[in-house]
Amino acid sequence: MVNRHVVGAHYGLRDWLVQRVTAVIMLTYTIGVLAFILFANGASFEAWQALFACTWVKIVTTITFIALLWHAWVGVRDIWMDYIQHIGVKLTMHVLTILWLLGSLIYMVKVVWGVL
């Protein structure tokens, strides 16, 4: 029988690895965007539109944004687990965080893919 504790963050290899992998994904994307800014002569609005009209850029942006949301979830969840002792408040904060992250995902789909 496994004895689970309600308090305390989920310190473990999986969460550590998620934080590192998602950080590398976000860093790689940021370097790519910075390279575009630096090497595109006069990066105009039209240049940005042309770049984000490419399906591969939309896919890479979506993957990066999902990595950002996952990275944020692990970090914020651990904060709530570590510093909020009251289980009702902790549950409320988890639900509000999930709603915020889902709202952010929906808005990203609207902006990047032009749907919804």
From TrEMBL:
Name used for this protein in its record: Succinate dehydrogenase hydrophobic membrane anchor subunit
Protein species of origin: Deefgea chitinilytica
Subcellular location: Cell inner membrane
SUPFAM superfamilies reported for this sequence: Fumarate reductase respiratory complex transmembrane subunits
PANTHER family: SUCCINATE DEHYDROGENASE HYDROPHOBIC MEMBRANE ANCHOR SUBUNIT (PTHR38689)
Broad class of where this protein is predominantly found: membrane
One Pfam family cited in the UniProt record for this chain: Sdh_cyt
NCBIfam families: succ_dehyd_anc
Membrane topology reported for the UniProt record: Multi-pass membrane protein
Annotated TM spans: 21-41, 47-70, 91-113
Keywords assigned: Cell inner membrane, Cell membrane, Electron transport, Heme, Iron, Membrane, Metal-binding, Transmembrane, Transmembrane helix, Transport, Tricarboxylic acid cycle
Function, in words: Membrane-anchoring subunit of succinate dehydrogenase (SDH).
Keyword RNA-binding recorded: no
Needed co-factor(s): heme
Biological pathway: Carbohydrate metabolism; tricarboxylic acid cycle
